[in-house]
Amino acid sequence: MTQHYLTPNSASPDHVVLVGWDRRDATFFARVYRDAGSGPEHILWEGMSRGEYTNATDIIEFVKSYVDTSKVKLTKVTAALYRDQYDSLTATSAQANAVTHW
């Protein structure tokens, strides 16, 4: 699965914000969590079921309130997610599991 880590905003600086495309389950996903020392404290976790989210815009809506939009252009992240979905049909394992930081 591709993973795009997004810069959190000043209201949630200790959060990890992650979106991506899970090729195996054919769904976009979003996670927001905070490292609580003993493991992640999940705040949001969407896209866990097969085929649950096929629209990248829906996933961006879940996380946008946690993202520093002065540093992260969400339209570019959305475009990258759609590329991930489209390219996953022919991607190598390395390409299908790419990690980026925005």
Largest beta-sheet details:
5 strands, mixed
**Helical proportion?**
25-40%
Q: Can you give the mean pLDDT?
A: 91
In what order do the strands lie side by side in the largest sheet? 4-3-2-1-5
How many strands appear in the DSSP assignment?
A: 5
> What's the order of the H and E elements?
EEEEHHHE
Report the structural category.
alpha+beta
Relative strand content: 25-35%
Radius of gyration: 13 Å
Distance between the termini: 17 Å
> What sort of overall outline do the alpha carbons produce when their principal axes are compared?
globular
**Count of DSSP H/I helices:** 3
Q: Which spans have pLDDT < 50 for at least 5 consecutive residues? A: none
Overview of the structural elements:
The chain is α+β, with helices and mostly antiparallel strands and 102 residues long. Helix content is 25%, strand content 30%. Strands 4-3-2-1-5 form a five-stranded mixed sheet. The mean pLDDT is 91.
